[in-house]
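Quick one: structure tokens for this chain, please?
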Amino acid sequence: MALWGGRFQGQASALFQLFNDSLPVDYRLFVQDVEGSIAWADAIASVGVLDGNECSRLKAALTELLEEVGEDETAIIGSGAEDIHSFVETKLIEKVGDLGKKLHTGRSRNDQVATDLKLWCKASGSLLETKLTAVIQALLALASRELDAVMPGYTHLQRAQPVTFGHWCLAYVEMLERDLSRLADALKRLNTCPLGSGALAGTAYAIDRHALAAALGFGGPTLNSLDSVSDRDHVVELCAAASLSMMHLSRLAEDLIFFNTGEAAFVELADNVTSGSSLMPQKKNPDALELIRGKTGRVYGNLVGILTTMKALPLAYNKDMQEDKEGLFDTIDSWGICLDMAALVLEGVKVNRDNTKQAAQAGYANATELADYLVAKGMPFREAHHVVGEVVLHAIAQGVALEDLPIAELQRFAAVIGEDVYPHLSLDECLAKRNVLGGTAINQVTAALAAKKQQY
């Protein structure tokens, strides 16, 4: 049954109905629509639209409908209703007759869907906070296992200076913590209830909107009816928060894909998150990580989609806004499963410490230490930088590491170099000298890890 029609003499075409109906998407708001309807029954009973018995009957029927349908989406989609609101109202009328037609008094689908969607966002956001925390915990567990594994750090995808694998893990913890804070901020801002705003001008009934908001678990009511029914900032913000987080997950995936290559062989991924080739029996492909990287693009697309849909829309509600949910649902689904997959991948990562250490040694990652050594001997840094560049060029030509060059050869480039240079060129010394807050020295990483573990 349509929630409108008296104004019309002709029937809607089948094509228009297919084009217009939103049930195949907004069926996911079923629980929220019922919850909002139960709260609305109490609200209109409080102003005399319903008597106590009518309110009880409606709430009992709505609760019964919630139990009957549950998570069975096929029962909703197969009903042929225009949208989730039509579905709930039709089923309610089937249960309680004409009494069911009284529930929509003073309410519009505009404030109804705005409320449903915010309730859904609140529930989904809470679940995503749990998933983000799980990835952080997986990173902390990996950092604990591989706290002191030495590996090359990179800039421009060129070996730069040695770091520890634990330090690498904690870099992504920082990123995901920012994701958590952005999500929390978005959830805080959307925590206002539009119900009672009517179609655009507010309801004509003296509803206590503060009580109504509290009944639905919101922090308070929205304060302008025009904005209430046309606001989709929360959809944009969640898509934006997801996009940033997916960027971080994609970077994590890319790092691990590179670390897992035969050329690097820094890590091995577990069998349960990799797949083989239909042709090449030897292959073990990082498909889980590649899909995380790939799904980032679709999440970005959903953000651009909702921004474009909302651009230049006049107040208040416009049918364009029906397009707000499909992209949001897809974004939250994609973000959620990528977080789950990232946590699973991290659980099974094994670090090949011999390879990571060898790569750190082979990349002349201790060149900066030699420059610092020369500075300590009184040489200006720019001169030291040039001298060490010449030493590295010589070492490359000889095919040896800096620490393997004889003292006589080192002194050809700078007479101030003495036998005391060699301890400065060890990987352990390179790490230990980065003993500053946020640095990669073992004791700094240990302290940072301990602090994070107390939070999670």
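The chain is about 60% helix and 5% strand.
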